[in-house]
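During the no-cost extension, the postdoctoral fellow (Dr. R.K.) reprocessed legacy sequence entries with the updated structure-token encoder. One reprocessed record is reproduced below for audit purposes.
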Amino acid sequence: MINFSYFNWKVWFGILILIVGIFIRTWHLQIIPVSLYLDEIDHVVTGLTLYRFGTDLSGTWKLWELQPFVSTNVVAELPALFFLLVQRIFGGTAASTAHVVNTVFGLGTVIIAIFIAQELFKNWKLALTSGLMLLVNPWHIFISRMAFESALSVFFQLMFVLGFLKIFGNKKRTMPQYILISILLVVGYFFGYLTYHGAKFTLLALALVFIALLWIVKVISLKEKIYFSLLISITASLLLFSTLMNLSTSRFSVRSSELLVSFSYLQAESTSQRMATIDNPLTRFIINKPTVLLHQIFLHYVSIFDPYRLFFTGQETAWQFSLVVSGYFYIIQLPFIAIGFFWLVCNWKRDYLPFVLLFVVSPFASAISVSFQSVFRAALTYVLLNLISGIGLWYLIFEWKNPLRKLGLFLIITMLGVEIMFFGYHYFFDFPLTTITNYDFDQRLLASYVSRIDRPVTIISDHKAYNTARALLTYTGLIGELSLDDLLQFSEVNKSVYQLPGVTISDDCLDLASIENTNVIISAGQMRECDYYVELATDLGEKPSTESGMLYKTLSSPKDSGSYYYLIKDELCEIDSAPTIVRLKKLDDLYLEKQNNQDFCSTWVKQEYKLTQ
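Re-encoded structure tokens follow.
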């Protein structure tokens, strides 16, 4: 018989949190988030082309060069490697496995965070509690279900941190221990640095702080101080030199303007502030580039800990980076964090100094950026905050002595469970529709339709033609029909026309008479911009209703039934049976690739009447 003692309820509580955390991280992983944002497609489609051609989409970049590549953005050097590995292991379309990478490394981050907590506090109960808090944390679940590179990088940043903390772990080390620490330091720094641009600044700052700390503490021998200092210095210097070389070739020219230390930004900001100030003799001393820089760094640093964003809204300045349906932390974690900080102060040991310095330095990338985005740039900080909240929960469960302890624990655990349940509900049933417009779902819907109809097809899009072409390659199997020569067109990101096998994509107003022998798909924006409504009413339009109006079939949004694309001469879907609004009936409707043609048409294609005059 199982003895449900006081200790055992804690074990079962931990097991339940573990199951719930893994479930939320993996359920409907392929369809939530509903699609890939264009920055995510950078990594995913590059992994796909690396798998097939050994190069990026432009055919001009190789992985082994360890240089950033340029698409519509300047993309970090190595994230595509991991999407390449997923393609080799799982196959399928790139989109079907796009979220697997961060899910795996997100779980890995939880494991490394547990080892970091154990290395710091020498308490497995505390370490496991901290790990469980990170496992169910809304922010970390959010970034671990996407294809942005930050979740990858923070895993390796924590590996570097774990390696450094292990230097203080044993006074007498064996050769295998030296090798393990060296691997953690070098591999963690190398991949953390090359998988995310923001981590370059964070890791460089950490390297300087860690080296200084090595020489301050007395428990490490001189030989070890020299060895580990050189190891970190050489690794950091080589990678920094590589970055500086890329700066000289203008590969980072676009991203450099995102830094507060940019001369143009400081010049514009100081001028703007002076113009908004009544002129006086002190102005040039109070408002100048150095004071503006220090003030902005302070504001950006403090904004990372904005409680409104952290505990209530999850809202970033960029909508596509926002969690929206939840704060980054549960509200109950606020007292956990306060208790965790209080416990650290009351139980202070010199051994905790590396952790404090790590926490202070970790927001460095966010602090020196022009934008107030923190979801990715402050990833290391938020992992550490979760660790501190875990300390608070551990204290309440294992160390708290109070006559009302049992009642207090019951209320705390109930509140935590309710918050986890509400987050799961809102993430799976509110988040898809709330964010569907900002995640370029129309591109995924378009790709599914194109894969069902006969070619040739002409698409006239109000997205950049480059982005639409990449989306089609990501969501369909068209990449398998491309040749190396076909890739050369993608070396230019601002062309108005791209050619895929049997598919032409343009963001210009094409002459419809010149493409009358193809299936034509026109975005709603281009229908208005190019005056196609009038032209189609007299030419290619179908089923006139009156002399001044037309009835069209459109791919439409499940959020507001707004039309994404008009389907000209479509033979896949019957207009008479098409609904007048589009609405999701169940989550499975988002599995576009699994729907047969009839279900696809009845779910996503609506009839729309438009006046032509």
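The first helix runs from residue 6 to 26. The radius of gyration is 27 Å. The remaining legacy entries will be reprocessed before the final report is submitted.
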